[in-house]
Amino acid sequence: MLKITNLHANIEDKEILKGINLEINPGEVHAIMGPNGSGKSTLSSVIAGKEEYEMTEGEIIFEGGDLTELDPEERSHKGIFLSFQYPVEIPGVSVTNFMKASLNAHRKANGQEDMPANEMLKMIREKSELLEMDRKFLSRSLNQGFSGGEKKRNEIFQMAMLNPKLAILDETDSGLDIDALKIVANGVNKLKSKDNAVLVITHYQRLLDYIVPDFVHVMLDGKIVKSGTKELAYELEERGYDWIKQEQL
Ligand code: ADP
Ligand code: MG
Ligand code: MG
């Protein structure tokens, strides 16, 4: 599904990603862990195509096609979803109306008609129940006055509605109390299928108790320096990152 080869990327002429290789197949859950500043968010932003980042080397292939020339919206229409670390507030636009507009924009980009209103409402009801969202929440202005937990839950709701092929969740756990974390993780788990993949970025092992990864990768200074299974996440929790840095010397 996703194949990243020798990816180098800069921000403001400073090299942040220094040769990333990563392959994700349908049905897999991958986690990227690493200390603050190691380039995790840069990687997710580069996959999503954010314009401030400059790819200088390597390639990103998604479902057989090169992503390099596509803007973030086109990538999203192809089925790549990036959770928003800093979500925008849109006064006067409700969660429901925003969701209807984005879902229909996705359908249009893929040559489909608007979803019939009754079908849309049914889907909104199903997905919001799945995530144990309060009905009143759906009529509130997007992100306005939302708590950290509400913002995260809304992100997962958007993900549930759009049903992306590849969902990238960057620090979805920060700012969540344990109950909200469980609901979010539960939502992600219910959406998992053999056809889609999830990339979870976190610096805490905690989230991975609930979203169990098939593969764990450690990122240090712009490179994936170690990969393993979920046991690696426990080892990192216990021992930190210094031993991996030592291995690199
Ligand atoms: P992580 O998500 O692992 O904490 P980031 O990808 O956010 O790491 O950051 C990697 C490096 O890139 C850091 O040194 C950070 O200071 C730098 N960086 C990230 N975004 C910007 C930016 N917009 N402008 C300048 N430097 C940035
Ligand atoms: Mg950071
Ligand atoms: Mg980050």
UniProtKB/TrEMBL annotation:
The keyword Nucleotide-binding applies. It comes from the Bacteria. CDD domains: ABC_FeS_Assembly (cd03217). Gene3D superfamilies: P-loop containing nucleotide triphosphate hydrolases. Pfam families: ABC_tran. InterPro entries: AAA+_ATPase, ABC_transporter-like_ATP-bd, FeS-cluster_ATPase_SufC, P-loop_NTPase. This is Fe-S cluster assembly ATPase SufC. NCBIfam families: sufC. SUPFAM superfamilies: P-loop containing nucleoside triphosphate hydrolases. The keyword ATP-binding applies. Residues 2-246 form the ABC transporter domain. Keywords: ATP-binding, Nucleotide-binding. Belongs to the ABC transporter superfamily. Ycf16 family.
